[in-house]
């Protein structure tokens, strides 16, 4: 039985370094930064894992969030996530991965628990290291690349000027979705946000 008062591990997936900061692939970091601001947490290096970690509570006396930005590059994100899940005693059902999603149109945010990784190397690494796919995913739609652009190049490119006009609003919505999963659960969150 899981501890209903235990912390939640919210993992923003991305790549460390200024050159990646505005990439589509780094939207998980953007959401984690916003959540840290909301809970009054400050990111700092965690000794037990190659990651930046911030901690805080949702509201006064609310659920504890452990916000994580792995610093291992996307393909190796799983090891620090698993180490921190073990250290903070967080079961996979209370781990939320926030990531970019090619198979969802830009402007849409979706949530699901478990399932495949859809070719996303950060999720694949997390599933392998956690030993399960049964964790929550907040999926930030970035859409498919235009024309014949390689998806790998597309995710490592910056948002277009047109996309950037909406980006802050959408990062805010993704943070709302992550908070809703913590406070209300996956299904009520799907009902509230999937029609938007």
Automatic annotation (TrEMBL):
<dbReference type="InterPro" id="IPR001328">
    <property type="entry name" value="Pept_tRNA_hydro"/>
</dbReference>
<dbReference type="GO" id="GO:0005737">
    <property type="term" value="C:cytoplasm"/>
</dbReference>
<keyword id="KW-0694">RNA-binding</keyword>
<feature type="site" description="Discriminates between blocked and unblocked aminoacyl-tRNA">
    <location>
        <position position="15"/>
    </location>
</feature>
<dbReference type="GO" id="GO:0072344">
    <property type="term" value="P:rescue of stalled ribosome"/>
</dbReference>
<comment type="subunit">
    <text>Monomer.</text>
</comment>
<dbReference type="InterPro" id="IPR036416">
    <property type="entry name" value="Pept_tRNA_hydro_sf"/>
</dbReference>
<feature type="binding site">
    <location>
        <position position="121"/>
    </location>
    <ligand>
        <name>tRNA</name>
    </ligand>
</feature>
<keyword id="KW-0963">Cytoplasm</keyword>
<feature type="binding site">
    <location>
        <position position="73"/>
    </location>
    <ligand>
        <name>tRNA</name>
    </ligand>
</feature>
<keyword id="KW-0378">Hydrolase</keyword>
<comment type="function">
    <text>Hydrolyzes ribosome-free peptidyl-tRNAs (with 1 or more amino acids incorporated), which drop off the ribosome during protein synthesis, or as a result of ribosome stalling.</text>
</comment>
<comment type="similarity">
    <text>Belongs to the PTH family.</text>
</comment>
<protein>
    <recommendedName>
        <fullName>Peptidyl-tRNA hydrolase</fullName>
        <ecNumber>3.1.1.29</ecNumber>
    </recommendedName>
</protein>
<feature type="site" description="Stabilizes the basic form of H active site to accept a proton">
    <location>
        <position position="100"/>
    </location>
</feature>
<dbReference type="InterPro" id="IPR018171">
    <property type="entry name" value="Pept_tRNA_hydro_CS"/>
</dbReference>
<dbReference type="Pfam" id="PF01195">
    <property type="entry name" value="Pept_tRNA_hydro"/>
</dbReference>
<feature type="active site" description="Proton acceptor">
    <location>
        <position position="25"/>
    </location>
</feature>
<dbReference type="GO" id="GO:0004045">
    <property type="term" value="F:peptidyl-tRNA hydrolase activity"/>
</dbReference>
<dbReference type="GO" id="GO:0006515">
    <property type="term" value="P:protein quality control for misfolded or incompletely synthesized proteins"/>
</dbReference>
<feature type="binding site">
    <location>
        <position position="75"/>
    </location>
    <ligand>
        <name>tRNA</name>
    </ligand>
</feature>
<comment type="function">
    <text>Catalyzes the release of premature peptidyl moieties from peptidyl-tRNA molecules trapped in stalled 50S ribosomal subunits, and thus maintains levels of free tRNAs and 50S ribosomes.</text>
</comment>
<dbReference type="GO" id="GO:0000049">
    <property type="term" value="F:tRNA binding"/>
</dbReference>
<keyword id="KW-0820">tRNA-binding</keyword>
<feature type="binding site">
    <location>
        <position position="20"/>
    </location>
    <ligand>
        <name>tRNA</name>
    </ligand>
</feature>
């Amino acid at each position: 039985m899981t501890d209903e008062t235990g912390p939640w591990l919210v993992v923003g997936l991305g790549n460390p370094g200024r050159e990646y900061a505005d990439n589509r692939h780094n939207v998980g970091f953007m959401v984690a930064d916003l959540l840290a601001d909301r809970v009054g947490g400050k990111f700092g290096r965690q000794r037990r894992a190659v990651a930046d970690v911030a901690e805080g509570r949702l509201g006064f006396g609310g659920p504890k969030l452990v916000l994580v930005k792995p610093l291992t590059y996307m393909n190796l994100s799983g090891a620090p996530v698993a180490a921190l899940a073990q250290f903070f005693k967080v079961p996979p059902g209370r781990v939320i991965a926030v990531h970019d999603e090619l198979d969802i149109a830009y402007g849409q945010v979706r949530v699901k628990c478990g399932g495949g990784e859809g070719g996303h190397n950060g999720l694949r690494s997390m599933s392998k290291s956690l030993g399960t796919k049964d964790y929550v995913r907040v999926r930030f739609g970035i859409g498919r690349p235009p024309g014949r652009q390689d998806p790998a190049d597309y995710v490592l490119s910056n948002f277009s000027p047109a996309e950037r006009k909406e980006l802050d609003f959408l990062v805010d919505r993704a943070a709302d979705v992550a908070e809703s999963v913590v406070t209300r659960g996956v299904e009520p969150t799907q009902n509230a946000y999937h029609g938007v």
